[in-house]
Amino acid sequence: MHILARLSLLCATTLPLAACFNDEPNEVQSKICIYNTDPQAERCKAGQMAWFRPDDGQLISEQMALSVAAAYCDFDHPVMHNRAGVVCVFTDQRLSSVQ
Fold it and tell me: What is the pLDDT of residues 68-84, one digit of tens each?
């Protein structure tokens, strides 16, 4: 029983440390892709946080927000929008339908 307790303690202390040795940062999630045209959106990577931000601080309509979300957002993740733009996780699955 004493050996089982030690083994359990060893497992409980080493398991949380396993995440510390992942030196590879998730580059896709560490940067935001900002775009306001279709050609600019094509530079974004799938899975990357993306922000549709119109030029010169223009406001967008609800229709434009829905169009951007329909073309570029991964609906498995939250989509945020207001009159200033759309923020979501980018998907390239519907790029062909945009062109």
Answer: 999 999 999 999 999 99
